[in-house]
Amino acid sequence: MSDGWRVSSGKWSSDPNSLGFGEEQTPYDSPSQNARAWTEAWAVEWLFCPACGNDTIEQSSPNQPVFDFYCSICREQFELKSKKGKFGGKVVDGAYRTMCERLSSDNNPNFAFLQYSLERRRVLNLFVVPKQFLVPEIIEERLPLPVTARRAGWVGCNIRLKEVPLLGRVDMVRAEQPVPKEVVLEQWQKSLFLRDKSVEARGWLVEVMACCDAIGKRDFHLDEVYAFESKLSSIYPGNQNVRPKIRQQLQVLRDAGYLEFIGRGFYRLR
Which of 148, 169, 196 is the last residue of a domain? Predict the structure, then answer.
């Protein structure tokens, strides 16, 4: 194996003690740089692939700009985002144009969001958003940097996590408790049908899934999804037939096993 690549021999553990960072000397003066070093080292040591269950993930070479880790078996790629506080409705990411290009490419990575305690040096929460949920509709373009900035005119983006359906947030650590591997793998498998769809088709499906989540009930009526018509119209201003489009998406989601039609306009989330 060439220099700059590391291989994990660690195994996922239900023991909360496995969530602690190593005691090695801090390599940087900056707390945020130390936190990145600790979280990346922890991921290499403990993290398994949520797509195939492989106990080994590999860290990309330092000059790889696209992803941080990848699975040597299924070749899934992962970009790690770490934060001391909780992740809010939006997460700052890189260049807007680059992100848009990645959404339709083969090298678009999955995103892992890790919350840590710097004082306690441990992982608090970790969830992964599979790449099929990263559609243009949840990527927000930020304002260009002012002319006084070093990179004047540069345009970044935000990932609007609040628009990601619940199925698209695969918990691996929840409230300092590792989630069993079989639970992680099961949830990952449930959304793979989205990968067979075009970027545009995935966008509609993801948005309708988010609407179903927002209703807040396992059983709901078609009219309750229609209540989001104005929101969907604002996202897709060129579509003049939003209600038929909603019904079409619900049928696709039914056929994929995401929900069940139980009659008289009622659906049930599975």
Answer: 196
Using alpha carbons, list the distances in angstroms from residue 114 to 39, 80, 152: 8, 7, 30
Q: In which domain, by residue range, is 159 found?
A: 6-196
**In the block, residue with structure tokens 């609407």:** 211
Same domain, 256 and 151: no
175: tokens are 């409230």
How deeply is 1 buried, as exposed, middle or buried, from its count of CB atoms within 10 A (0-12, 13-18, 19+)? exposed
Q: Say what the alpha-carbon torsion angle 80, 83, 85, 88 is, to the nearest 10 degrees.
A: -50
- Number of domains comprising the chain: 2
The pTM of the whole model exceeds 0.85: yes
**Per-residue confidence band for 64, with pLDDT thresholds at 50, 70 and 90:** low
